[in-house]
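Spend some time on the protein that follows and explain the fold to me:
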Amino acid sequence: MPAFPIVDTHLHLWDPQYLRYVWLDDIPLLNKAYLLEEYKKATAHVEVEKMVFLQCECSFDQCEEEAGWVTELAKVDKRIQGIVPWAPIELGEKAKDILDRYSENKLIKGIRRIIQFEPDIKFCLQPNFVRGVQMLADYDLSFDICISHIQLKNTIELVRQCPDVRFILDHIGKPDIKNQNFEPWKNELRELAKMQNVHCKMSGLVTEADHHYWTKEDLKPYIDHVMDCFGVDRVIFGGDWPVAFQATTYPRWVETLDWALAGYSENDLRKIYRENAIAFYKL
């Protein structure tokens, strides 16, 4: 485990009795309340100093309720220092109303509008979507990119059109770790990393691997490539709890990453596990 407190930039909390999460219907393990008490138990052997909450894909019309609910939770656990809610970015200029309201909440640090589930491979290149992302710079909000590896090529084109926006790639772009496929993810990730306004979140690898039989050796080549592309100054740790619970305990994920980063100095590890997060999300 790290010899210092860490920052978790990818925390999910939900209560299906309060908000509707259609995607949980098919995942019995996750289809129940996962709240702060459960998170504390899951991270009992890891010292987490700050957390950033990421939207959990509740019904879109409940996105502001979700942000408000987590804002109240932050009063209970002061470690919640950032919220990244959902917003209808694809509306372009018409998304300003909700962004104006979000701007009144100082805990809101960025927006995540998941691209992964869209059937149109070019969804993120629609003019209104691009405009909606570009507008985030006016609000000093970042954008969390959540895609599958098959959408990485078009994501690169999106980022090129938004040079003033701070981006972070969730779950290293979700490569096909289960089948140990590397291309074209490997080359496309390197291309994305050339743009200095992009960070990469070291999270979610285990759920892209074989949930029951993955090994740390399965993950190591992907971790190495991320580090090679983004370096210690643009890689940020994320726990992805409780989604990652499908494949790992929280301590095992941290221990695996520790093992994979064994050659890095403590100063480098502090950047990856905490300092980069504090700077990117302005905690």
